[in-house]
Hints:
alpha+beta; six-stranded antiparallel sheet; two-stranded antiparallel sheet; globular
Amino acid sequence: AEGRPSLIVNGKKYNADSTGLVCAVYSYAGLTLPCDSALMLQLLDENKLLYTRGMPMPGDILFVDGCCVGMAVKVNGKKGYILYIGYDSKKGISFISTKQKFRQIGRGSML
């Protein structure tokens, strides 16, 4: 999927952006999420699965300023690195490594 402009999962086409990517991954796992960052945040908050501190866990949904940026894949808490899959405007769907602190993390691993 890396670098592709769109995703098709279980016969459904998802946008080639971070929110579409997260929806596609969760759909593949048999879970339905709204493919809209605001609605995704609302769903996570209503289910008490939204938190603002600490490091994410693999499967968690990462947000910046209310916008979904991707899903955590691997976390190295000692060094503070997070590897996540998201959308890069130049590369498309990509793995991204960062030390960025995320203010909103959806505990997607608990859905």
